[in-house]
Amino acid sequence: MKIDEKLPIILQKVCAGFPSPATDYLEDEINLNEELISNKASTFLIRVSGHSMVEDHIYDGDVLIVDKSLNVKHNSVAVLNYQGQLVVKKIVKKNNKFFLISKLGNHNHFIEITEDNETQVWGVVTYVIHKVKK
Predict the structure, then answer these.
(1) Potential cystine with 102: which of 46, 48, 109, 117 (Cβ 3.0-4.6 Å)?
(2) What is the DSSP string of the chain?
(3) 127: Cβ–Cβ under 8 A, 6 or more apart, which residues?
(4) Are 28 and 9 contacting, i.e. CB atoms less than 8 angstroms apart?
């Protein structure tokens, strides 16, 4: 399936409690581009490899929707080129400086983003697509 195909959607919101008997029919269609992508020209998809972002609900094999036109803010999750390697990390702002949070064991390590460590932001993650775990 291509992401620009329209899919059927039920207009009634799903309840996590008891189901409503009145919502057993389709009302409209949804276009995932319109729903998930604000700026098509600056958006790309990328697959995650690794487990360092599970605390942010990003898992190995997930697909990230990333927008290059968005500015990094405190607590943004972004795709970066860090020292020649593509990584996805949370970025925090502290004392007017930006840091990557790297989780090693039970400890958070903060790596300051500087010109010296060759860090380039590729874009801000706007959505995470993953399978429901069984």
Answers:
(1) 109
(2) --TTSEEEE-SSPPPSSSPPTT--S--EEEEHHHHH-S-GGGEEEEE--SSTTGGGT--TT-EEEEETTSPP-TTEEEEEEETTEEEEEEEEEETTEEEEEEEETTEEEEEE--TTTTEEEEEEEEEEE-PPP-
(3) 36, 64, 65
(4) yes
- Residues identified as active-site: 52, 89
pTM equals 0.76
Q: CB 125: neighbour CB atoms within 10 A?
A: 23
* HSE (side-chain half, CA atoms, 13 Å) at 20: 11
Q: What is the pLDDT of residues 79-130, one digit of tens each?
A: 999 888 999 999 998 898 889 987 766 777 788 888 788 888 999 999 999 9
Q: Cβ distance 82 to 117 under 8 Å?
A: yes
